[in-house]
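Hi team, as promised in this morning's meeting, here are the two structures we talked about. I've kept the exact order from the run log so nobody has to guess. The first one is mostly here for context; it's the second one we should focus on when we meet again. Sequence first, then the predicted structure tokens.
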Amino acid sequence: MAQLINLETHSDERGNLTVIENQIPFPIKRIFYIYGVDDSARGGHRYRTTRQAAICLHGSCIVTNNDGTKKENFLLDHPKKCLILEPED
């Protein structure tokens, strides 16, 4: 089941530092990011064995998750919000 988690962030006068490893509940094997987009929908598919973590680094986005029985929208509007997606999502 998809869930939002808050990533630990350290802040001081120099800025913010968010560390991802050891906060994501699975090993990180691949990292990619998307930018320069319009309002088009992306994704629209799932992976049968892959667990994913989605973070919006700038601005905001809505991730719609449909696991076949429940449809949910998740607002990612801060870089310390992380959406965990399980294979069934």
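And here is the second protein, the one for discussion:
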Amino acid sequence: MLDALFGNKTAARVLLYLQNYEEGYAREIAATFELPPTAVQNQLRKLEAAGILVSRLIGRTRLYTWNPRYPLLKQLRLLLAEALKYSTDKQIKAYFRKRKRPRRAGKPLWLQSKSANP
């Protein structure tokens, strides 16, 4: 849907990923969408050069996030939030519901707890 607006599918997917997760690094984004890491790295560099994103090094990993000084950030994020609403359930499950932290020890799985409490 946004491919034509942002120029290519990689740019659209990178921005949607960051809209959903707030931050990310190239390999993580590439693995999520099954894209070549170099394509994602190039797109992240372009978005940073345009002032839309900022990055910082954490060890040897470059972590990207939104540039709070970008003048159209609010409007861009509103557009991306609307685009996410039009994603199919399959797309949302595949790309935008990844766990970002470990499960608490002993915590039951959602499906198990759901079936146990009808």
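Starting points for discussion:
The beta strands are 23-24, 53-58, 61-66.
Residues 112-118 have pLDDT under 50 and may be disordered.
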